[in-house]
Amino acid sequence: MTQFQTLEATIQSPALKAVFSHWLDARGDRLMPAWRDIDAAAIGKYLPMVWAWRYDFALSTFIGRLAGEEILAVLGKEIRGRPLDQCFPANAAQLVHDRYKAVITGPQIMHTTGHVHMKTGRHGVGERVVLPLSADGVTGDGVLGATEYRLHFGDAKRVGAAIDHHHEKITVYPLV
Hints:
176 residues, Beta-Lactamase, single chain, 5 helices
């Protein structure tokens, strides 16, 4: 079984499997696909849970490209054009940055599962896949991700939710 088959078997969410499958198709014979290779129409029904960041080498940070409505409901703010540290709580921003940076420098794919806590006291589970992007097919310069939150989104939009980034189960799959 290849590492990609292992990852596909590990992903529980059919939506995340579909986004991963599109990433595989988009990369073709390259190590990683470029942002321009990602076809929104191909993953259209999953766009509410899709997000993307580009890496700004001059600023040494990720800049938001896209976040679907389910992602925005949990984050509580728009990410487009904003640095990552302005989009995540202070206690999680560096951790998220370091994980995404490892994805593009590995390069590697990251699969995580963990808890999402609601301010109402309820909680749910989240599953995420983080996929590297590369304009030249070799040097990572961004990430495409999808996160499925198994919780009530009416609550997330109304009262907010918090992702427990510090206690996620993380598995990485090197591309080389």
